[in-house]
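Lab notes, practical 5.
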Amino acid sequence: MPKTSERTFGNRLEHGRALQVALDKIAGYSPDNANLTPTKFKQHLDAVEAANNTVASSSQTLSDARTSRRLAYFGDVKQGVPGLATLAARVRDTPGSMAGGKHSPSYKQIQRLTQKISNYRPPKKPVTAPPGGPNANKKEISQSEASYGSLVQAGRDLAAAAAQVPGYNPTATDLQPAALTASMTALANHNKTVTTALVEVRNAVAARAELYDGEQTGLKSQFQQAKAAVAAQFGRRSAEYKTIVGLRY
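Output from the prediction step:
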């Protein structure tokens, strides 16, 4: 179901198109401002529609990136994805099976790092305030990003600690220090992908905002100016003005 703010953007575009069609039907309509001609007005409306599509596309890309990252970090039993906490627990249990077991200094050190990772809980999924909407919670977004960054660092610390354990040489290749380091790099890359997608959404939202609300040439201004142009040319009591006076932005 579309977000309320996205419906509003779409509605305003449709209202603009209704005005453009009405202007095109007014015989002799010739505004002083060239941007208010039916042809130019339609070009602006087309640009607005393209901006809406860009926001929708980039927002979907961001949502997909966040979903993929969440799965990589926290796993999903149904999908057979273990997640970082499960991987850390397996790393911990490897020195636990070695000489000295759970009483060895190596086990205790890795246990502390593993506990640090397992203490993290998935952020509320996902932070999906409407793009650029008034309810976007920037603080919540930043906290989530910080949590993912801290998890990567905790994982790197665990990989480094495992590499220092005497005799640590598990048969499971994904528990080898080099493989653990590669896994942390992959998780960090998920963070980079999300960050890039988030920047693209914000840029798309800003560009769209200018097309809608720009002080001189935004859709809202042009909508009002076009109605004023008809009134100026034909008068507010004219038949021409009556065809557009009821149209609302």
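Observations recorded by the TA: Confidence is low (pLDDT under 50) at residues 132-141. The first helix runs from residue 4 to 25.
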